[in-house]
């Protein structure tokens, strides 16, 4: 018996929180056939594919429960790491992959209002949470993204657990800033590069993906709160074994 096409809309109309997990994108054959030109396009495509698959497999029991928190995932795309292979892998997500510890976590700067400069005060609450995870041995190393020399220095001097890396967006600068390079070298901070847009998933983009996948809902009621991108890389070889996204969204007013 197929799923009632209205079930997903009914569940989202009653839920307060949505957890969406794409699973391993390398298991999505249809995504492999279409090469997204940007990470934002890839993410939006993944959200839509996950919502479409999930909504086609909703069980009658779930509809009867009307849970406050919806877990939106596709079982065939989720892939745990073989424990025998764990030492060969560099991992950046935990329970999703069935591991007890992450090798590294890099936090992107939290969103701030236009015209406001990112300060240490913006970073502190997020960094303290990461420090707690390091101290409880859930994470080995933590890093930052898109901090300039002054911002990185302030964080380094304040933090109990020091950042071991800082990602630099080379789309906004052709070469590493010399002052940042010198500071990172002095304190053994690894400088990495990325080409992500400033905002990987906007509120409007998420709502459009939600509306296109499940037309009979009020998509504007839903707001993405946070997004995590994870990867599993074979050490010393640079081969990507697994990658995916996890996000949380909330319904306004809930």
TrEMBL record:
<dbReference type="GO" id="GO:0006750">
    <property type="term" value="P:glutathione biosynthetic process"/>
</dbReference>
<dbReference type="InterPro" id="IPR036812">
    <property type="entry name" value="NAD(P)_OxRdtase_dom_sf"/>
</dbReference>
<comment type="similarity">
    <text>Belongs to the aldo/keto reductase family. Glutamate--cysteine ligase light chain subfamily.</text>
</comment>
<dbReference type="GO" id="GO:0006979">
    <property type="term" value="P:response to oxidative stress"/>
</dbReference>
<comment type="pathway">
    <text>Sulfur metabolism; glutathione biosynthesis; glutathione from L-cysteine and L-glutamate: step 1/2.</text>
</comment>
<dbReference type="GO" id="GO:0017109">
    <property type="term" value="C:glutamate-cysteine ligase complex"/>
</dbReference>
<protein>
    <recommendedName>
        <fullName>Glutamate--cysteine ligase regulatory subunit</fullName>
    </recommendedName>
</protein>
<comment type="subunit">
    <text>Heterodimer of a catalytic heavy chain and a regulatory light chain.</text>
</comment>
<dbReference type="GO" id="GO:0035226">
    <property type="term" value="F:glutamate-cysteine ligase catalytic subunit binding"/>
</dbReference>
<dbReference type="InterPro" id="IPR032963">
    <property type="entry name" value="Gclm"/>
</dbReference>
<keyword id="KW-0317">Glutathione biosynthesis</keyword>
<keyword id="KW-0007">Acetylation</keyword>
């Amino acid at each position: 018996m197929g799923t009632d096409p209205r079930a997903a809309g009914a569940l989202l109309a009653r839920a307060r929180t949505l957890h969406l997990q794409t699973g391993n994108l390398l298991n999505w054959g249809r995504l492999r056939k279409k090469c997204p030109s940007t990470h934002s396009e890839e993410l939006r495509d993944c959200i839509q594919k996950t919502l479409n698959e999930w909504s086609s497999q909703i069980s009658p029991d779930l509809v009867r429960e009307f849970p406050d928190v919806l877990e939106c995932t596709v079982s065939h795309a989720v892939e745990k790491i073989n424990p025998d292979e764990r030492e060969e892998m560099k991992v950046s997500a935990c329970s999703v992959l069935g591991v007890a510890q992450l090798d590294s976590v890099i936090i992107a700067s939290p969103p701030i209002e236009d015209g406001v400069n990112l300060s240490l005060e913006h970073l502190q609450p997020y960094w303290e949470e990461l420090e707690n995870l390091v101290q409880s041995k859930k994470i080995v190393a933590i890093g930052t993204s898109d901090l300039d020399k002054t911002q990185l220095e302030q964080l380094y001097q304040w933090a109990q657990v020091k950042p071991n890396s800082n990602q630099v967006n080379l789309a906004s600068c052709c070469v590493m800033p010399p002052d940042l390079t010198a500071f990172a070298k002095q304190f053994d901070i690894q400088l990495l590069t990325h080409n992500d847009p400033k905002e990987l998933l906007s509120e409007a983009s998420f709502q459009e993906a939600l509306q296109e996948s499940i037309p009979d809902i009020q998509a504007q009621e839903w707001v993405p709160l946070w997004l995590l991108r994870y990867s599993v890389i074979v050490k010393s070889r640079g081969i990507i074994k697994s990658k995916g996204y996890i996000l949380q969204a909330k319904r306004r007013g809930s």
